[in-house]
């Protein structure tokens, strides 16, 4: 019996390009998604509308949009009904506060759903990826007090 090997091709990861960033309220689908998620009002000064695309080898362009927030590396973390992730390298997101206290959250949506959101002056650290737990904890050590708010069990660092 003769076996024919299939030629394997390297998988090319998408290279997203940011087309435009707008304030929330321009795109009804993003608004509906955030309202359905229960965070529309809380997201007003934290998230943006991010319009981005990827172009394939045949120069076909696929356009996308999502709610987004920047991480420490200046890359966009995005969330939409069909995709949540980073458009480049994942990293922590830090929303600065006024107290010597840090609150750690697994996701930005967890933070925006938190009932004490409007009352805190703490620095907010968002992991954006469970693999960034060690980095988040290291960052939290810079503060006198730390609180963690994790819904899902996270892997040990």
Helices and strands, in order, run as: EHEEEEEEHEHE
Q: List the total number of helices.
A: 3
Strand order of the largest sheet: 1-2-3-4-5
Helical percent range? 10-25%
Shape: globular
Structural class: alpha+beta
Strand content range: 25-35%
Distance N to C terminus: 49 Å
Describe, in plain words, how this protein is organized in 3D.
This protein has 157 residues and is α+β, with helices and mostly antiparallel strands. The longest helix has 9 residues, at 28-36. The chain folds into 2 domains: 13-88, no CATH class; 92-150, no CATH class. Strands 1-2-3-4-5 form a 5-stranded antiparallel beta sheet, covered by helices on one side. It has a 4-stranded mixed beta sheet with strand order 6-8-7-9. The chain has helices at 28-36, 108-113, 133-140, and strands spanning 17-23, 48-55, 61-70, 76-80, 83-86, 93-95, 101-105, 123-126, 145-149. 25% of the residues are buried. The termini are far apart.
Secondary structure: elements and pairs:
Elements: E1 17-23, H1 28-36, E2 48-55, E3 61-70, E4 76-80, E5 83-86, E6 93-95, E7 101-105, H2 108-113, E8 123-126, H3 133-140, E9 145-149
Parallel strand pairs: 7-8, 7-9
Antiparallel strand pairs: 1-2, 2-3, 3-4, 4-5, 6-8
């Amino acid at each position: 019996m003769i076996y024919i090997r299939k030629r394997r091709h390297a998988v090319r990861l998408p290279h997203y390009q940011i087309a435009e960033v707008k304030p929330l309220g321009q795109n009804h689908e993003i608004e509906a998604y955030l309202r359905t998620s229960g965070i529309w009002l809380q997201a007003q000064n934290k998230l943006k509308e991010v319009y981005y695309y990827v172009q394939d080898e045949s120069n076909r362009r696929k356009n996308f949009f999502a709610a987004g927030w920047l991480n420490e590396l200046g890359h966009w973390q995005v969330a939409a009904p069909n995709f949540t992730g980073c458009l480049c390298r994942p990293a922590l997101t830090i929303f600065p506060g006024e107290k010597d206290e840090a609150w750690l959250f697994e996701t930005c949506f967890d933070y925006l759903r938190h009932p004490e959101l409007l009352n805190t002056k703490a620095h907010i650290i968002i992991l954006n990826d469970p693999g960034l737990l060690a980095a988040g904890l290291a960052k939290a050590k810079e503060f006198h007090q730390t609180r963690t708010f994790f819904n899902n069990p996270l892997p040990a660092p």
